[in-house]
């Protein structure tokens, strides 16, 4: 059982009593949405990070953001996703999944994204880099993410990236900025940015949440071995 809060003593007692072993995993990044524009967003980040975030904001006019799916909360500006675009987006997701083996334990199926687009609890956001800003001539997205919206929480669950533009045009950084911007637009109070990419996420003033996994081994010897590893 993975990616659970590490600071829950009731959960610890219950799971350990049931024969599970608790092991630490990567921290999660959480952002309090206490800003409403670029200047208030900049004011909440550290001085060292401010120039990086401002540079990301400066590059924003080179991108086009498009909303997709039943969970956008509005019909205005929501674009359809055809089969060719779905195939392209899944390919961008596979680019990320093949590199992030620390947090991906299996590849999500191609049929998942069409289902999310029909679900009112999810929205999909794509980013296209304009050709005049150095983007591809085909005009297809260079980044995208799927976010779950519940109560006052905005949670990007998985994403896709064209790595030809990640390092040259900062598309991952731009996607993080667009996630926070979109959460603010929707009146969210918290963004769950998940694990990994600590440096990029921390520039936006994230706080860290400790996570853990609970593992149960049916073999007694392996269970004891896990306990020793965890203790060390």
In short:
The chain has 232 residues and is an alpha+beta fold. The protein has helices at 9-17, 38-44, 47-59, 83-97, 112-117, 166-169, 171-185, 198-202, 220-231; strands spanning 4-5, 21-24, 28-32, 63-68, 122-129, 143-150, 153-161, 190-195, 207-209, 211-215.
Characterization of this structure:
The protein has 232 residues and is of the alpha+beta class. It has 9 helices and 10 strands. The model has no long low-confidence stretch (mean pLDDT 91). The radius of gyration is 20 Å and the shape is globular.
Helix content: 25-40%
Strand content: 15-25%
- Mean of pLDDT: 91
Order of adjacent strands in the largest pleated sheet: 4-5-6-7-8-3-9
Number of DSSP helices?
9
How is the secondary structure organized here?
Blueprint: E1 4-5, H1 9-17, E2 21-24, E3 28-32, H2 38-44, H3 47-59, E4 63-68, H4 83-97, H5 112-117, E5 122-129, E6 143-150, E7 153-161, H6 166-169, H7 171-185, E8 190-195, H8 198-202, E9 207-209, E10 211-215, H9 220-231
Parallel strand pairs: 7-8
Antiparallel strand pairs: 1-10, 2-10, 3-8, 3-9, 4-5, 5-6, 6-7
Give the tags:
alpha+beta, 37% helix, single chain, 232 residues, 10 strands
């Amino acid at each position: 059982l993975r990616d659970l809060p590490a600071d829950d003593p009731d959960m610890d007692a219950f799971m350990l009593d049931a024969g599970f072993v608790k092991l630490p995993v990567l921290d999660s990044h959480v952002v309090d949405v206490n800003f409403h524009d670029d200047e208030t967003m900049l004011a909440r980040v550290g001085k060292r990070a401010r120039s990086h975030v401002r540079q990301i904001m400066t590059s924003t006019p080179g991108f086009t953001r498009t909303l997709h799916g039943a969970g956008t909360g509005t019909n205005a500006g929501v674009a359809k996703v055809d089969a060719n675009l779905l195939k392209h987006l899944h390919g961008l997701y596979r680019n990320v999944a093949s590199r992030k083996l620390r947090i991906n334990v299996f590849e999500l199926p191609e049929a998942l994204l069409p289902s999310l687009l029909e679900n009112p609890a999810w929205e999909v956001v794509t980013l296209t880099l304009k050709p005049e800003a150095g983007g591809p001539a085909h005009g297809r997205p260079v980044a995208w993410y799927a976010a779950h919206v519940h109560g006052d929480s905005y949670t990007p669950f998985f994403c896709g990236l064209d790595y030809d533009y990640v390092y040259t045009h900062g598309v991952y950084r731009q996607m993080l900025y667009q996630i926070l911007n979109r959460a603010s637009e929707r009146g969210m109070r918290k963004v769950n940015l998940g694990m990994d990419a600590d440096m990029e996420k921390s520039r936006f003033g994230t706080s860290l949440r400790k996570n853990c996994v609970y593992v149960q081994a049916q073999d007694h010897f392996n269970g004891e071995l896990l306990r020793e590893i965890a203790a060390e």
